[in-house]
Amino acid sequence: MAVLHDTKSLYGTLCGSVPLSRPSLGPCEVWGSRPSLWLPVAEMLGFTVSRVVMPLSPFAAAGRSLYSHVHFTSSPHRKPTQPEPGIIFCDWDTVPSPRARFWDTSVAPLLVCGEHRGFSAPPGWVIDTHIFDHAAVGGATDGQFPVTFVTRSVFHVPSSQWPPVTARPGGGVSGSLQCRVFSQALAAPVQEPDQPERRVYRLDDGSVGAWGLMPAASTTLSVTMRSDFAKSGYGRRKLTARELSDIWNVPILLQDAYVNQGLEQHLGDFVATTPAKVLAFAADRLISHGFRGGFDFWPLDNPVTAPSRQRAPRLDREPEDDDEVEDLPLPPAKRAKLESNTNACPSSGDLLNSLPAHEAIRVDLDKLEQEILKQDGQKADDAKVPVDIWDGYFKSTMPEKLAARLLPGWRVRLDNYRLAGLKFWRKCRMRSFWWDMSGRIPSKVWELEPRVDQTVRWCRHGGKYKWVKSGKKKYSAWMKALLGHPAGVKDWEPARECMRVAGAATWWEWKGGSRLFFWNWPESCRTWARDGQDHYKLGELPAFTRPQPPPSDRIKVWRKLFPVRERRYINSGEVRSLMHMFDVPKGEEDVRIVYNGTASGINDCLWAPHFGLAMISHVNRALMPSYNQADLDIGEMFLNFMLGEEIRPYSGVDISHIKTRKSDLPKYLPEPLEAMPEWEKDRSKRWERWERNWMGLTDSPYRSAQMMMVAKEVAEGNRKDPHNPFQWEVIVLNLPGMKNRDPRKPWVYKQRVDESIASEVFVYVDDSRITACSPEEAWKTVCRFSSVMSNLGIQDAARKRTSPSDTPGPWAGSVVHTKGGLYQLVSQKKWDKTKSLLGELREMIESSSDGMVDRKRLEQIRGFLIYVSRTYPWMPPYLKGLHLTIDGWRPGRDAEGFKVKAGVRRVRPFIFWEWEEEQWIDLSEEAYDEIAGAAKPPERVRPVERLRRDVEALLALTEPDEPVLALARPEGDISLYLMGDASGKGFGSAFWNDKTKEYETGQYGSAMQRKSSNNRESDNLVTRIERLEAEGKLYNQEVFIITDNSTFEGTYYKGHSTSEELCDIILRLRLVQLRTGCLLHVIHVAGTRMKEAGIDGLSRGDLMEGMMKAGEEPWRFIPLALSASERMGQAVEDWVTSWWGIGSEAWCGASLTKLEPTDWFELRKVVGPRLWIPPPAAMETVIERFNEDRLVRPHLPHVFVVPRLMTHLWRKQLSKDADVIFSVESGPEFWPREMHEPLIVLIVLPLTPVSDYRGPWLLKGTDAATGVEKRLTKGFRAWREARNDPERFHELDDDVSEVWEGPQQWSRDILFKFLVEQRGFPPVRKCLVRGLLHRIPDRHLSPAKYARRGGRDRERPRGSERPSKRARR
Description:
Elements: E1 2-4, E2 13-17, E3 27-31, H1 38-45, E4 48-53, H2 58-66, E5 71-73, E6 87-91, H3 102-105, E7 110-113, E8 125-133, E9 144-152, E10 184-185, E11 208-209, E12 222-226, E13 234-238, H4 241-247, H5 252-260, H6 276-290, H7 332-340, H8 366-377, H9 387-396, H10 400-404, H11 410-440, H12 443-446, E14 456-459, E15 464-467, H13 471-483, H14 492-504, H15 526-531, E16 536-537, H16 554-566, E17 570-571, E18 581-586, E19 590-595, E20 606-607, H17 616-620, E21 628-633, E22 652-654, H18 678-681, E23 687-690, H19 700-716, E24 730-733, E25 748-751, E26 760-764, E27 767-772, H20 775-792, E28 815-817, E29 823-825, H21 828-847, E30 853-854, H22 855-869, H23 880-887, E31 911-914, E32 919-922, H24 925-932, E33 940-941, H25 945-957, E34 966-967, E35 976-981, E36 986-992, E37 997-1003, H26 1006-1009, H27 1013-1030, E38 1038-1043, H28 1046-1054, H29 1060-1076, E39 1079-1084, H30 1087-1093, H31 1095-1098, H32 1124-1128, H33 1131-1140, E40 1153-1154, H34 1157-1160, E41 1170-1172, H35 1179-1192, E42 1198-1203, H36 1211-1215, E43 1220-1224, E44 1239-1244, ...
Parallel strand pairs: 3-4, 3-6, 4-5, 6-7, 11-12, 35-38, 38-39, 40-41, 41-42
Antiparallel strand pairs: 1-2, 2-37, 7-9, 8-9, 10-13, 12-13, 14-15, 16-20, 17-23, 18-19, 21-27, 22-23, 24-25, 26-27, 28-29, 29-34, 30-33, 31-32, 35-36, 36-37, 42-44, 43-44
Helix pairs in contact: 1-6, 2-5, 11-14, 19-20, 19-35, 21-22, 21-25, 22-23, 23-25, 27-29, 33-38, 37-38
């Protein structure tokens, strides 16, 4: 054990460690005539308490509720089945008399607390009494308490051979005071010493000072303390029973047990016994040094030494250096490293003096920059297809001998094979269509087909076929019957267009555009592929017929529109409303076409559901070091998919100014046109319309992404097919909180038979990223995905193809490399630009004469920083000030730029979608005014205060000259966990991994005590992290910081707090992350979990609870890897089923299907509603899978039941789709108090378009959904607070008063009634009609409110009987 002196603690920080795991020391018994603290002390030492012999008392009642595994009895007689104790803990009133037979038959030593009172040792036994000073062992009283060791003389070791006692730091009375208890105000403040001594401070008025010790013999004295209720800041009062119990070191869980049993007033009974710290220290010392042979016990008074499992005598033990009170030493190498790095642990004044990044995370980016630039060039429309990639892989797959014999012209011959393959592919498209139609149209229609000799004959002279008599009539009659059959009447014209685009396609490009081969799509999506999905409408469609203004440069606009019209994306047809387009300069020689759906009003009439896109973190779960990635882009992403038939007439385009003229033909690029195109001659009208999802339409992104997710599912195929590159065998969960997990592997991944991670594809709009374990597997996967896309009719932009690489280019705004590790980074060029822009921001703020800055320049800087922030997760929280400054001019904003509820008005951003480059681009103010007619924003805006702090923080975080590598996966093979708390005036933390468990505890000095609890708890954790950095334990590691302070967690992920000091603390943590390259996760848990884990007690200096017990594994206190079902068995699922129903009795006519990890990746095979009960740590992957499932199958409902842990990964994203979300406080039978954190329940109802409905499309935010959310959340919380105090139920509101019957039955009635009422909600009702809900069961409903509380005539749910009074009690 060591004491670390620092400026923040009052008497120093106690540092030590306890065994991570170890067997029990054997059985023991606790005897007592009054409340005793031997029971928690014995368990802390590592003994198994077999029974407690004690008269019936409040302690026995509270002990039974807390120590359910211990047998409490008032009989001293031991049953034959009960084991003999190895040691007995007792007081003198329960020690047998010296003449009792006990001393002849027993060999177990006794540890006795209390006064000796003249007890004489029996023959062969020795009595060894020691006096222990409570203050010397870390207590808060001046009492001295005797503890006696009674053992057989043969085992006794004289105390002269024991090592000296090491004093422990402790605190005063103030550390146990409850701040909310009223005290008598003092007229004047009291002079309080800055560094109080460890003694009793007696004041002139007869009270004692709270900054000193409490007189153990005078616990009824008043205490002078700081008080928030007094103007002087000081008050005087007597201590409460709970405060006295805390001074006597009663474990916090035992205190709570008294309170829960309604016995709080009896907590003062512990004053008559020996404090727990004295008992723990005495037992440790007497057993370790006074018993020859000892127990298999690792002494807590010297936990720095390695544990010894030997039962050897400890007579020759010499005092160790660590027994002295001194500063915590560092190894010489680390000390030298720390001395050379003066800013290793920056103070609050040095926060902005960042250090260079660690040497271990440097790379040479010269080559990387060239690779990225090369890949960026492939995005141009006229870029050449990198044919060498295909040729190279063709040659690499050949046998070496055959490859060496290739002739010089083999590439030309390969092109000939490609031409033959293209012809074969076209034939396959035709054959597959006819094969599909033959299965749809009845055979009797096909039987009508006349034979060839009945319709035509060969003419020798003409050299061609001619119709025979009535042959043409027979053939026409058959074709009329075939084409007019209802089963295929809508297929022929789209199929003809499909054959046209297939005929115009080359091996590398879709020259004639594309059209989905709808017959190759899954049956459920066939109509979507052929005609387009239906739209969600919010109002009546507009009739906008204002003519299109002439373009500023007609030729440039004509060049842009010509290929779109040629490919029939814009085609002739009925037009009821127009939408304008205009050109925006793109360089000096080119223009961009902006399609405006706002001015016509069509965007205001359509609604698009929320949908999630793949992120770089999703890609990382499929990667390991040395794995390969490749890119496959979709050409003309939105234009691959059909616009809904109902919206096409309202997507008209006035082409009167851009129709092709003869004078335009020589001006076409890249080559002049020779003649007027035939398709132009047939389209004479001046109005045409969009046939595809056009860029600028509100729901085009949603509809296009929906079809891409369907295509992705088709490409993944059968996972058990050994020839499928996407094949996998099992889902592996490698979650935080699991013992012996490997942090070098993903948290959730698909594993193949060869134990490698399976190949995957991730789609971000039109960019697809392939991952695989090797270049060969990556190329196979790319080929598979490309082949399926072509088979479905989706364009593959071959010019953007990249070869598999472990150092690929950017995807979704981030660069992830797997060479030598797994990390994200940006190029040196972008890093230098980032630093330059941040310096420019600071200069703009500081040098402004009028306090205003240029808004347009801020938008440009923000755009680039957002791109960089996709690589560095620590950057987005510090961009909030930039957002608030740029948008602070908008209506409904306060002085700091935040939105206010009143007066909020929707204003569209100054950006537009550029269809060629498929990205959002800043729009000039003049062009924006032409689109929306919106009021111009000011040219200059005033920076908000947060922007100044954010810029300084970003400058500190980007201080290194070279780009920082953001580790996506740690390099260490063990996970690190830090759990800390600061309760009252003390602090404590526990740090553990798979090999060790260390702790720190102490009491804050007066300066820290004056700070807020949020700052104290945050500083406690960050200071410990900085100390771990100085010890070299964090480099390239993964660290989980666990706290019960939600403000600390929120500030870490949001980057800002109203407290400037808390922002500085978070910045210190970010700088540690930057210097060490570690991965930090901050996780909020319930305060009751902190108590159970022993961290709350540790902050009070107690080492007797939770993981502080010898051999107690800490992982069980952080169930991040356990789902609600794994923690509570079937109870949670039964509760959900109670309000959803089963089978034909289910709400939708189908039971909920509980999804296992394997089902997450095979959702297309799961039929019916989904029940998600995943572990909290797996929620990021669950959200990814849910997003895809919701896109493809929006008509299916979902229910999520997740403990409130790691919510930063999922709660915000999932809440966007949930119709109902509420919390279940711990306490009901299906989720008892031992679970600590609430259950979060989310219900996602079915969604499908309805032609004659105009919204709202989601129940989220409606009165019905909001009402049931508030009622359930309020009811569960009220029941938790009032279940131990029946009097409080009379104070409940009427809308939650029925919770008295029990939360399970009460919530069942509310939820079932709510779900039944939503059957009439149009999007849900249509799902009922289309067959999701097979039939509506006639199920009895209990009323939401009953006429009166307990009448006999009260209607009750079927199957529920009125409980007896005894049962209700």
